[in-house]
Fold this protein.
Amino acid sequence: MLKRFFIFCSGSDTAILKECSAGEQTKYAGIGATVFFTAVMACIASAYALYTVFDNIYTAVFFG
């Protein structure tokens, strides 16, 4: 389940990857995990930046 989500995040074609080896699937799952966690960290950083600008947690969470 989590591996399929990370493969989806990597932007690869899932129909082609089903026919590939487990090593290729793991490689693209790793790429997807990197993309996903980069997006999570960017969201946290933007929320913190907005909090320091507006000094309002609700604005930071809504726009961050």
Helices lie at 2-10, 14-18, 22-54, 57-63. The mean pLDDT is 93.
